[in-house]
Amino acid sequence: MNAGTELTGNELYPRFTDAEYTRRYQAIREAMERDNLDAILVSGARGSSEVHYLSNYLAQSPCWILFPREGDATVFIHFFNHQPCAKAQSVVEDVRWYGPAPIPTLADEIRRRDLAKSKIGLVIMRSMAYGHVTELQRLFPQVEFVEFGPAFSRIRKVRSEEELCYLRWSGYLTGPLRALAENYAARNPNRKRRHHGVNGQLLGLFDANPPPLRYWARAIPSIPKTFRYSLRLLRKHTEDLQTGNKK
Question: In what side-by-side order are the strands of the sheet with 74-77?
Answer without folding.
Answer: 94-97, 74-77, 63-68, 39-44, 119-123, 144-147
